[in-house]
């Protein structure tokens, strides 16, 4: 397919092949819907054989698999990130179906919370301002004039009253003015493809619930998703059945003490005297409290300028200690403090905190005064205000610092609107601190500090990391070539990398928790410092929140309902569940363990948004993460309760929503075995059967960013509400998806929706590119060129299969050729290895084996037998096409169902076929033989290329003349190679093979020149994927001489060259010899004591068992 890059993404110029594949996809999507392929039910409970079976017996007789993804939020259409997570569920469901399991993939629509209603309310205000079709929107010029007028009015007001000339008033810069305003909500809606005339409908929040879920289903269907849509539902009270389920969940958790009432950190408006929820905000919707650790840094001696000011303050209690209070997210790094920073441009207050004085910005102390950190709530008037420049030079004694007599130093990049304005300096692990400290050392006079204050400050290693050693910040700054503390963009990126690397791979190297992982030690150190009074928990908004009354909001401790995550007995259960759970990557399990260590109370209620009312306190709604923890269990019964996602139509059991009492849910989920209800017991048992059959959930799949909340809540709530046998079995966390190796972003245009991807590349090609994108917790990459290449690959495979299956001239009979036996054996080997990779959910590897390697094997077979003149064997080609179809079916089902039904003639769908397995045990010797032949043919081509290369105007071999091919076979390894093969094996086993400093200690000086290249080749073979047991084996699994004789007879050696023709090769000589010999045995002439070629010492030395050398020479 021809492609041209224009702007973001590829432009496909010739779409005929894609369109042919999409036609197949549409056809089979329709067939699957008509066949109800993805509607999966539990075994009928009225079956005599199963009526008395418990869940374990059911699973043994009728294997099942249930997988789900975090249900998408319905404030827009699905994008490529959703598509990536969806694909992981898809591939697992497709594979498990082929393992004979009843594989269930349900998907619901999340509508709970603030975003939808907040957007609807914004649209209401914009309609009031600009009209129903937004026809009265001011032009940009009119908006600029209005803004200028407001600024002038503000300036006049300031002139009319006394203004403190020391107070800085910010004005918009010219650059800011040119940027203009942000987008209105109606403009954002139009970017989604919604017409201006239709946008006003979205001012009704319920319209969102009607509009986006059908689009989600439509997009998933076009992707070929194996979703059982009967089980879908929307959240909130818009579906009364789901609403009753969440009410049961809340009641159950309150009854068991999991939900409590008490103080929680909340965004708060001092001016309004109440919590400022999202709908109360002029700006800052969605912003939540950010928790810091406030570090109390004792002052041992104030700088002279600051001391003079303090001395002038009447009533200042000099007996009290004075603490600079720094806010940090990284208490574990306090061991690396070398100084403390303030901004010379910021004013700081000294606040009377009862038994001591605190130095912070007034903004920070205002937050503290509403968090029970200060003596009096709401009192934050400073005793005195002092400029940061007057504190510079003060002597301090920070907690946990390894050095004494540290100082307050200047940092120009400190801002007054983040943290406390006081910054601990940890140059070992903070790139900002490292660059600032380096700058202070180099330019002490410029900063007005004494050189003695900084010249001896050392960067102290405190954390060891795999990637950046024990000085993360220094290494990163050097690698990223950061030159200045003002290089904000690079430093921001370096900060993210440093935090991630330290947290996930870092190990403490100093202090009480030396040797422990940072993600574990972090919480312990925080707790220790709070316990000993050197630190406290401090919260502030994670960004600016402005109330509608114009108040800059703070964080306050307020009474509210919360889930008591972190309660010890409950946490112990959650840990038990995690221990038995498959997390697919150690990093994921570590992240869960870290979250369980710090996660505590979580507000369960909101006063604004969409959702379910708290049953016992209906002025509050259940917040959006709390009603999204056990919805997978509701999937198991939803299709029997209602027949539409909104719960408007009663389901096949005829159960009305008012009949779904808490007792009924207790019965379904096995909390009670007898209840009073007017629902027939047969119906209750059908509901219970669906739940106990499909539960426990086999795997929940989501983005890694949800580990810290949604997925951990999922574990907690499951262990709280269900018997142990129904606890979840697995969680798979994906990395984020990049698009064409760049972060996805609507603002840059590097963004695609699921619909756009499928329209552009078709479903199967898109699915192949998604499988190829990656499987780890690291960020994956959807490469459009891979999707485009998949179109061509599928189309060519389709054309070839159609052509070859129509032929009647394929060879039949026995497999009488090395390539027949080898191809059959290699197919069996790839099939088994692909099965293993699918089982491990390594879909990138499964795709590589099941498509790319499988096709490469076919290509090699086809070309090899063509060279011998025999042609392909019919049985092998039919086996290849059927196996290829089945191997690829989990990933590209439309294409595979077409081949399976229309080309191979099966009457049923590939969706119901069994995954292939090896037809006979894999023979390793045959695998090695085939790989040996490939390597020999590659060596022949490489030798030809070198021989024909022009050197000083001429080549070693004249391609116009006749040629002799000599193959040199070493029958044994030289003694020195045997010796160092064993050395290399031992080093590889211990993980030291790539450490040359270790390697050189094992090599004798006299052998160094020949051993290092030899071991380098071994390392190259390992890097290419060869197994260690093959690389370090000094014996072949096959008879090398016998194999060479066979291929010599069928002309494979002569056919391997690319420039020199078969007819030009007048002679092939094959010589075998032992190390140190001057003569050889000729396999062609059967003569002994044949002289080895002159001038070929290197080739002779390199020829060892399994790796022959090749010579090409003209025949004179």
TrEMBL record:
The keyword ATP-binding applies. The keyword RNA-binding does not apply. Residues 825-948 form the Methionyl/Valyl/Leucyl/Isoleucyl-tRNA synthetase anticodon-binding domain. Residues 971-1023 form the Leucine--tRNA ligase RagD-binding domain. Residues 146-167 have a biased composition (Basic and acidic residues). Keywords: Aminoacyl-tRNA synthetase, ATP-binding, Ligase, Nucleotide-binding, Protein biosynthesis. It is an enzyme of class 6 (ligase). Residues 57-126, 213-783 form the Aminoacyl-tRNA synthetase class Ia domain. Pfam families: Anticodon_1, RBD_LARS1, tRNA-synt_1. Belongs to the class-I aminoacyl-tRNA synthetase family. This is leucine--tRNA ligase. The lineage of its organism: Eukaryota, Fungi, Dikarya, Ascomycota, Saccharomycotina.
